[in-house]
Design a protein that fits this description.
6-stranded antiparallel β-sheet, alpha+beta, homodimer, 3 helices
């Protein structure tokens, strides 16, 4: 993460892979208690009877944990600033899952109205220990151009 | 929230409005510390120089707070189970913002392969005190059909 990447440093096909991390039942329940208090995210007895057949993480928890790893693994200048995108949860995150995030640059588009920056479309895929995607997100990121050298 | 709504109870145009809530700087920083540790979400001095000109909430924090309000205000049977959708943050959430969520049913589609349920597309718009959207999300929700009465 020493070198920050500007718009000119990014090309379609470039990839970034995060470190792995393990998701605990306690974290799943803590997040859900605050933001998504439903039986299948809280570990209540009803969780076993739900569509999921047991405790699963809120999709928003998967998204938040993913963001942490994107911030750690994608060294764009100015940070990770997204305006949104298509978000999918193909399968749930379960306690004990070991996740990591793979980010690929899809498209780099200099801004016509803002010469100092551009938009970069990326695909962030959050994978579990079996290589299955628990989340895909395809955001557009705002990335600055490299500042011109100062004359003199 | 007394009566839960099944697929048959939902029609395009139906709307649900959540209670309002105020977002504090402390909550913004607490969420970001755990999930999105970037200067403009942590209240560091650099926040003033960022694209945002000050402390703003992580988009994922706005999303998580929105989910809480959707869970509280949209009484679908079986809970709120989404498979994903298009997520947009047209402007950031700032400390002191008073938000609420308005959810509108866009489309109700019975499943062909799963007679006991269907998909409901909704638009969830998170609005601030000035009536400006800080988030829009258009997910597909899995909603059960009303169980058939048992004969006898």
């Amino acid at each position: 993460m020493a070198e920050r990447l500007f718009l000119e440093d990014l090309v379609a096909g470039q990839r970034f892979v995060s470190a792995s991390f393990t998701v605990s039942a306690a974290e799943i329940v803590a997040f859900a208690t605050q933001y998504d208090p439903q039986p299948f995210h809280l570990g209540h007895d009803e969780a076993a009877d739900s569509l999921f057949g047991g405790l699963v993480a809120s999709g928003w928890h998967t998204a938040a944990m993913t963001m942490r790893k994107v911030v750690e693994s994608v060294p764009t200048a100015g940070g990770i600033i997204g305006t949104g995108g298509e978000l999918r949860w193909p399968r749930p995150t379960r306690p004990g899952d070991v996740l990591h995030v793979e980010t690929e640059v899809l498209e780099v588009t200099p801004s016509r109205s803002r010469p100092e920056r551009g938009m970069v479309t990326v695909r962030c895929v959050t994978l579990n220990q079996d290589g299955e995607a628990v989340q895909t997100f395809v955001p557009k990121l705002v990335v600055p151009r490299r500042p011109a050298p100062v004359d003199g």
